[in-house]
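<tokenise_the_fold>
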Amino acid sequence: MATAAEIEKQAEAREVRNRWFLSAPALIIILLAASGPLLIVLFYSFLTPGPYGDVVWKFSIEGWVSVFLERDIFDDTLSFASAHLTIFWRSLKLALMATVATLIFGFPTAYFIATRPERTRDIWLFLITIPFWTNLLIRTFAVLQVIRNEGLINTALINLGIIDQPIQMLYTDFAIMVGMVYVYLPLMVLPLYASMEKLDFRLVEAGYDLYATRWQVLKRIIFPLVRPGVVAGSILVFIPAIGAYVTPSVLGGGKNMMFANLIELQFGQGRNWPLGAALSITVMAIVMVALLVYVRNTSGSEVRHG
């Protein structure tokens, strides 16, 4: 006759089986719709490129070798792929610069909204989300009209007599960064606001009562308490920024390429699908590292403040 412990153990086993059975449809959908395409891309990265695109079903690691290295056309010696490394560095640099810039502009914006009366906060948040109503391509073209040689900024500066010739801002790294900051700024403001809304501003008043300066209050009270929002906003900006395609294409003019443009080139004109697949997995690995940093920081913050 089964004991009470055995009966309880059997009941727990049945509960586990039922949970797996109920979650099986969702797991299958995730596997097929999310993991399936990624596995195909990973599989393609170990094949041989076809002469007119597509792949030849022959194992090869040349795609991965070509991510950072290139072969000499005469003697097959390997050397660093300077063009790829330049694009990698530009992508990381611009993504980090855009993240820092959105933090600089987004932090005071979120603080301003969080300190408004409750009846007006929804209006300010509504205004922040308005750009999301417009297609990304249209928003990027709007930035182009502002910074081009005959655009709003150069026209105003010339009319004021500050400059004689237009300043070349378009088709530069600066133009790409400005476009990404404009496009992704709401992704920084919203998580920051979510953290600041929960902030107990009596702590800020206590800091001032103890003769702390504004910088000390910001550094020692406000910033540590809203740190999860800073980390979340930074990740939400960094991930799409490092994989941006439309903004570099329009504002970079095809000369200042980033990760996504290089990948598109390999699947298009380059006709090197394995290299494009290897580059895609490389970008995904960078994003995964960023997500792990986010999870580690937010988990540590919750433990300290829990």
About this structure: The chain has a mean pLDDT of 86. The first helix runs from residue 4 to 44. DSSP finds 13 helices and four strands in the chain. Strands lie at 48-49, 55-56, 69-71, 78-80.
